[in-house]
Predict the 3D structure of the following.
Amino acid sequence: MGRRAGKTSGVGDVVVLAALLGLAGGVVVPTTYGKVNGVELPTSFIGGAVFYRIYTFKGIPYAAPPVGDLRWRPPQDPAGWTGVRDAAQFGARCPQIVDAKAPLDSPLYEILTYRSNSSSEDCLFLNVYTPNVASTANLPVMVWIHGAAMVIGSADTYPAEIPTSLNNVVMVTINYRLGNLGFLPTLDDETDGNVALMDMVKALHWVQDNIRNFGGDPDRVTIFGQSGGAWAVSLLVMSPMATGLFHRAISQSGVAGLTTTRRGDVTRTENLAARVNCSTDSYDDMMRCLRSKPAQDLLFLEIIPIVGGRFLPDDLWDLMYKSQVNKVDYLLGTNNDEYGMLLSVLPHFSEDGLNRTVLETILPAQLQFDADQFPGGNVSLIVQPAIDQYLDPDMDDPIYTRDRFIQMMTDCRYTALTVLMAKAVAAHDTRVYQYEFQHRTSLFSMRPSYTKAAHGDELFYMFGIPLLRDDTGNSWKYSFTQEERDLSLDMMAYWVNFATNGDPSDFTGAARMRDLVTWTRYMTSSQSYLKLDVTSSADVKLRESNMKFWNEEVPRLMGKEITTAYITRRLNPNVRASKNSQKP
């Protein structure tokens, strides 16, 4: 493999350099709407790349610009074009309240710095990365849905070039409408208001229609995402409108236990209208006024899906609890300290610990998000039970209190919902694999000592950041340990194996073999999971008592009828309900 020439500073610069050297030979691929000309990208900037080059196609429109009267409408077909469309540059990112940035000397630079040149409502673009453009290649396809709570973020920030260069896989990254532009209740018959989710469905239709021309297999499509992207993945798993468009799913750090709005309730829309001086006297006039406002005036940090319609037929907790989900294979998991960094910004929260009285003061506000996922939920009913579940009444040590609080919030916001979704999908006898990522990354010397694998840490490894070469091509760009580089290769192998075969331990069709710990399938009886670390290991029943508290006791307190034998009966209808079933 040849060395890189010249000085570059990032993945995007490699493309520019390749073009200057005449290495970026145009590769033309037909799509439903016209031909696109991609870039041949040398991969010498990636340590251990399997392919000496891959092909990238950026800024491909999968839907018409959602502007004017199309704002808050379902995505429409894009206009076709004649000739060949240049696909060397990313399309515009979607409007958002703030642009995420990271220090240039941080590995976050590769996944949190925008590589698109502008922001615009004309943003419904996708990007394709492939090692093989032969229509007979039949490679598995992985469609990445970016995170950041579905209110900020962009597809272009994630360097899919890296995992594509290391694995037999076609990767697709997509933009979708964000915040109030993506989720706003309307009374229109053709939409429930979940237009961001409809964007994702539209992109998946594009994949079905076109991905074979990029070397992909439309019958092996996996959707995957992290944080807000993981929420989106779980919502697509719950939606009848996404049935058949994908075959496997991966959620990293999140499934959608979210506050929702019932279809037909336009209170949130009226509140938004009032903020931007639109009259609410007439619904039609209000919507015309809202559609005339600049996009930036409409953006607020909130994301509330609409339920009770065609896209999401019921409340999210009920869809999971009743196993009303698509029959797909699912790999899902969390980090063991999701809230370590998120809580560190709170006052009175430090290396010295957290005062027990302060915890009791701030806890209701922290748990409000969880109560709000249940219509009419009353947070005061779960505060003391949560304290009783996690804190020993005889322990008043601030370090103990802080660490238990972190575990409490990690479990209630992330882990418990992930377990609930795992049970919901496993009830259909599909293949389910659960993990907990446990590695504290060595680079974060400034991170508090009490923080382990925090929210988002696994992204470095899944996107191969430890394997980037420096400007000379002779040394590593970042000072990850060799164990961490191996962890990155392991994690990518697990993910791509799952997308390829439905089993993360099955290397059939892989570009390279790795000596991996066997990942045991999750079953509702055994509840197996993988402790994902530099030395991974198998275990069962992740924090079982805490999971039962959040998935059974809290819903019961919020007014849900809980039958602990429900999943068992779905798996075996001949099993009668237990006498110990809990009801309110």
Remarks:
- The longest strand covers residues 216-226.
- The radius of gyration is 24 Å.
- DSSP finds 16 helices and 15 strands in the chain.
